[in-house]
Amino acid sequence: MSAREYNFDGLVGPTHNYAGLSSGNVASMRNSHAVSNPRQAALQGLDKMLALSQRGIPQGVLPPLARPNLALLRQLGFEGEDAAVVARAAREEPRLLAAAYSASAMWTANAATVSPSADTADQRVHFTPANLNAKLHRSQEHADTTRSLRAIFADATRFMVHEALPAGGAFGDEGAANHTRFAAGHGVPGVELFVYGRAEFNAEVTPPRVHVARQTLEASRAVARLHGLNESRVVYLQQNPAAIDAGVFHNDVIAVGNLDTLLYHEDAFVDEAASMDRLAGACEQAGVALRRVRIERARMSVDDAVASYLFNSQLLAREDGRMLLVVPQECREHERVSRVLDELVAGGGPIAEVLSFDLRQSMRNGGGPACLRLRVVLTDEERDALQGQVLMTPELHARLGAWVRTHYRDRLAPEDLADPQLIGEVRTALAELRGILQLPGLYPQL
Questions:
Q1: CA-CA distance, 375 to 109, in Å (whole number)?
Q2: Which sequence positions are flagged as catalytic?
Q3: DSSP state of 416
Q4: Domain region containing 239
Q5: CB-side exposure of 355: number of CA atoms within 13 Å?
Q6: What is the pLDDT of residues 39-54, one digit of tens each?
Q7: Contact, 62 vs 108, CB < 8 A?
Q8: Are residues 432 and 403 in contact, defined by beta-carbon separation less than 8 angstroms?
Q9: What confidence score (pLDDT) does residue 27 get?
Q10: What's the rounded Cα separation, in Å, for the pair 333 and 111?
Q11: Preceding amide of 68 cis, omega within 30
Q12: DSSP secondary structure letters along 136-181
């Protein structure tokens, strides 16, 4: 069956800020308490969406979540009117206020894990929102994310949006940032790769020593069951714990794949040779001749990968069968990484072209091009069943750009989160966004 991959990018929210809430994420910690520019961040993301859609790569928009999450603060004992809740939290627990204001849902690679209808037993597209329970500021996202996904993918005959997995150490789930699909074509059954960092119930799996691994094997297996996947077409690989300790908090910071191609660092997986043999074998059984593009540590260290976010790039199929690699501008500003990119293109392999974008506002908080998108494979019929106006066009880009320029601040410092006027500004903006996207039930709390 004919199908295409749609990249649903997160629209950066008006409370984008640098609170340094994500330990294990080198960029997030390094830029903690810097001054952000929400307007610039949103416009940079929108420009990437438009540019890729104009190259024939379908783009969708996932809306920001409603913030601040005052329900979280009230649950933690801050009482009174909205302004009083914010004022007390700013005075007594500024980290909790920052968590309530977090715009981290912009990185929609963590929104959910998605399996296309070609892979699932009931031939529906399945979504499991990630519980993200490793971090407070992210663990509050999944209920709102579920509501957003059900608003857009509302046709129950074609889509199934599950509840997030149970909270708790055994089922830490970080979504598509640790999931990759390989197939001979988007519309045929493929192989789904789940990468985990630790196993709650298997003492033989060695965890990292410095940073907590966020994705568990148990969570990955549960998602595969929920989606009704054929176990012969599912592969589970362990992420290298040394890479996690070096700042590779998700697999998409050290590997990226699409269709028949995997670009990865040699330190990405435990027992690289056995892991690659297992993946290649499963792909071969599915009719996929896996093309492995391996980056040796002698050419580029893990630290270089983390600094540049080379692997947190979008690997996109061109019409000629070769790949376009969409990278952050930082890759071209890093001498060794830029040289590797040139070698990839010149080498005659599957990667034919590299396209860089300025996503500096996102990058300073630890998110590159791949973090900003959720990959959803859709048939034409499934695409036509989408609700709202969420597929990128020049007209939608213009409307959203004008909306951002009207409502977003161009400067947001940590102390600005205590400003009670910010609450009203954000609510006004999101109420208008509902109309632009034609999703009237999107923000019921407004």
A1: 8
A2: 174, 250, 371
A3: G
A4: 4-67+102-437
A5: 16
A6: 999 999 999 999 999 9
A7: yes
A8: yes
A9: 61
A10: 29
A11: yes
A12: HHHHTSHHHHHHHHHHHS--TTTEEEPPPPPSSGGG---GGGGEEE
